[in-house]
């Protein structure tokens, strides 16, 4: 039977790895199209990757710290900005 500590690190690692892969896909689309939307989405997923890696590696970086959620807020704000920027009317 796997203990909670080991299982939580497994899930954190899986989320970090998949966030990195998704960010890489968005960056590839950005290189092909040059659309800032894909750049911002890719950066957002890579910020989330770094946040998850720090959560798994650094014992002092915990989910109950405000800084943890500030990093996530930054990532989600980039996504929101990308959507608003993409749908903004161009003159």
Automatic annotation (TrEMBL):
The chain crosses the membrane at residues 6-26, 38-61, 67-84. It holds the Pfam family DUF5985. Keywords: Membrane, Transmembrane, Transmembrane helix. This is Lipoprotein. The lineage of its organism: Bacteria, Pseudomonadati, Pseudomonadota, Betaproteobacteria, Burkholderiales.
